[in-house]
Amino acid sequence: MTFSVHGLAVSRGIAIGRAVLVASSRADVAHYFIQATKTAEEIQRLRVARDAVAEEIARVQRDLPKDAPHELSALLDVHLMLLQDEQLISGVKHWINDRLYNAEWALTTQYEIIARQFDDMEDEYLRERKADLEQVVERILGHMKGVASPVLPAAVAGSRALRQQDLLLDDTMDVPLVLIAHDISPADMLQFKQSLFVGFATDVGGKTSHTAIVARSLDIPAVVGARSASQLIEQDDWVIIDGDAGVLIVDPSPIILAEYGFKQRQGELERQRLNRLIHTPALTLDGQKVELLANIEMPDDTAGAVSVGAAGVGLFRSEFLFMGRSKLPDEQEQYLAYRKAVEGMNGLPVTIRTVDIGSDKPIDKLAGRAQDGQLNPALGLRAIRWSLADPPMFLTQLRAILRAAAHGPVNLLVPMLAHGSEIRQTLSLLDHARAELDNKGIAYGPVQLGAMIEIPAAALTLKLFLRYFDFLSIGTNDLIQYTLAIDRADEAVAHLYDPCHPAVLRLVADTIAECNAQGKGVSVCGEMAGDSGMTRLLLGLGLRSFSMHPSQILAVKQQVLRADAGKLQRWAQEVLASEEPASLL
Ligand code: PEP
Ligand code: MG
């Protein structure tokens, strides 16, 4: 039966595919397709791991002391039994043979199906057996680690290109897949950059949560904040993800499928039209030059930025190098990553932001300062505060960025500053990093220094910032969050997260005006910059530098080409003075 689930639209377009339910805790399990000729090998890999676990359990059982409680031995029997469970084994084989999932993916998929059945059981004893099954699965996964099959062949990875007509190929490995999860951390989201999925949806998250931001960078239709989607949707259900309306349609009827197939093709045509703008200079009708820059998370993302004609990287979120790993990257690893980004942009400037760890971008517990238990992580030890709390770590990053600057133009951007003392400490550590490199005779290059304006206190003390910095970059995602006291990642208050609130627009407008008056560079690198509905207003407020996901650049360029910046000035002031600015856009 067809039903729909509503959430928040975060990434445009229509995706149609079969649901793959991924539990948050399982996102770190490898997801890839195997070659059709390798299914027996994959099943064998699983069998070896299962036999090893069985042997392990049998050994423990043999070695149990005579006076060990009887329950312990009985529990091990249950584990041995679960290892032989027909539903588990036949299910896993199905995912490998029929869908070409790798063994780990097949195992966790089947586990999720059985776990739900356990959840629905009346009998408490049986319900609790879910924990045993989880332990058994965990053990098998542990044994399979390091014994991986080759990664998916490129031809199979390109499932993104599949469209409506491909649905006819039902039950073959070519069926497009959509990812459905309760939540996915930004770090785990990065794993899905391989375009294995054609769309995704999560139960939680706001429009500018970092998970949504990474999803947008994948350039696939996405919906977040869809509340109980991961409970309502079942493994393998057909789902339409409407990333424009923020709706999921489950088990669609043929008529609905046909309608969305049509919309999907319209979207593709629009995309092709926009592609014609790649080499068109970004000039307004009255000849104002506008800089359209890219936001990236990883050095390899520069390829996407170059392909749409970005004028440089306006925001490299370096924290993604630090997340999802048990040890922080050392100076050499960071230097190579930054250098790769710099070289990837072929002489165009790259703005590297120092780490913005904390809040919804935690690092692995093993890698350092965990954030567990903080009542208000967004107001806690985040971004520059985290860096200044650990000078050796910060110096390591500063040295790596300075060294990368020897290979091309680099801007160094500092997030979340609010206090003069933080600014002075940062500058002094930067001097220190340079002195360390001088002492060791290591080459480094010059950097332009920028500060993010993302705390209202910063936007209200611009003169202080402009005394120390070469340029400012407005982080509207956090500026909105902190101005309106709305958690950007909380779907329950998403309706109050308003980029057009007069207070937000006032802070943005004043920052642009003050920088322009002092001849300092200013750009917007929050999601507002990539929203083509806001382009005219920002141009009217005097903004000439926008940084956004590469996938948004051409739509924004189209707005720039159609705009007369001079004429927009007066209108922008009217919008600014209005109590309901959104109604004038
Ligand atoms: C912002 O806050 O607008 C920004 C660009 O930084 P991030 O989204 O990474 O917090
Ligand atoms: Mg921010």
SSE order and pairing:
Elements: E1 3-6, E2 8-11, E3 14-21, H1 39-62, H2 70-83, H3 86-97, H4 103-119, H5 124-144, H6 154-157, E4 177-181, H7 186-191, E5 199-202, H8 210-218, E6 222-224, H9 229-232, E7 238-242, E8 247-250, H10 254-275, E9 291-296, H11 302-307, E10 313-317, H12 331-344, E11 350-353, H13 384-388, H14 391-404, E12 410-414, H15 420-440, E13 447-453, H16 456-459, H17 462-468, E14 471-474, H18 476-484, H19 502-518, E15 521-524, H20 535-540, E16 545-548, H21 550-562, H22 565-577
Parallel strand pairs: 3-4, 4-5, 5-6, 9-10, 9-16, 10-11, 11-12, 12-13, 13-14, 14-15
Antiparallel strand pairs: 1-8, 2-6, 3-7, 7-8
Helix pairs in contact: 1-2, 1-5, 2-5, 3-4, 4-5, 12-14, 14-15
Bound molecules: phosphoenolpyruvate and magnesium ion (MG).
List keywords for this structure.
single chain; 585 residues; alpha/beta; 8-stranded mixed β-sheet; 8-stranded parallel β-sheet; 45% helix; 13% strand; binds phosphoenolpyruvate; binds magnesium ion
